[in-house]
Specification:
The complex is a heterodimer. Chain A is mainly beta. Chain A is built from no helices and 11 strands. The chains are: A mainly beta, B mainly beta.
């Protein structure tokens, strides 16, 4: 069973389009994240949700709107896609708390905006 | 200054070599520390947690120096399969901050 699954794995779309990436975890974790990995391979946190509530929004443009319908799901909707949005987006989850916070990642969604 | 800094490498080493990676972090409130491994075009996976007392897992040894805000990873007897990017990670938890902060990663290439 996949612990953290995100879909789609690949997404190629034109500038200006709106797209969504879905993420689900079956680990019973309370905290979920979206990370963006750019062409230089730097993993940067975008959002953190704890029990469906937004905890962190790391100055991400408001074209990016996360939605957490329940603890096990954290989806990412992106409006008006731009070339600079091309990257790999990773969903992750952890237990809540400062210790034992091993993060489990989804396989990533490789977004290419053309 | 980045919150977690690592030498990006690449480190090109022969099989059997010992290689050491270093990492520094800027926030003294950081609570937990980890090394993750990321293979090409794959997701990051936990390699090991890092404790002040130091910890070892087979050929891998991790150390944490809180006073210097410095983390290290030592790999002995390198194998071809160790080739990957190694990510230094710290966690910040509490109040409005619940996150894992990743370093830029150090690329290791073990040569036959």
């Amino acid at each position: 069973d996949t612990a953290v699954s995100q879909t789609p794995k690949y997404l190629v779309t034109q500038m200006g389009n709106d797209k969504s990436i879905k993420c689900e975890q079956n680990l019973g974790h309370d905290t979920m994240y979206w990370y963006k990995q750019d062409s230089k391979k730097f993993l940067k946190i975008m959002f953190s949700y704890n029990n469906k509530e937004l905890i962190i929004n790391e100055t991400v443009p408001n074209r990016f709107s996360p939605k957490s319908p329940d603890k096990a799901h954290l989806n990412l909707h992106i409006n008006s896609l731009e070339l600079g949005d091309s990257a790999v987006y990773f969903c992750a989850s952890t237990r809540t708390g400062p210790t034992n916070t091993e993060a489990f990642f989804g396989q990533g969604t490789r977004l290419t905006v053309v | 200054r980045k919150e977690v800094e690592q030498d990006p490498g690449p480190f090109n080493v022969p099989e059997g070599a010992t290689v050491a990676f270093n990492c520094t972090y800027s926030n003294s409130a950081s609570q937990s520390f980890f090394w993750y491994r990321q293979d090409c075009r794959k997701e990051p996976k936990l390699l090991m947690s890092v404790y002040s007392s130091g910890n070892e897992d087979g050929r891998f040894t991790a150390q944490l120096n809180r006073a210097s805000q410095y983390i290290s990873l030592l790999i002995r007897d390198s194998k071809l399969s160790d080739s990957a990017t190694y990510l230094c990670v710290v966690s910040l938890w509490g109040g409005a901050t619940n996150k894992l902060i990743f370093g830029t990663g150090t690329l290791l290439a073990v040569q036959p």
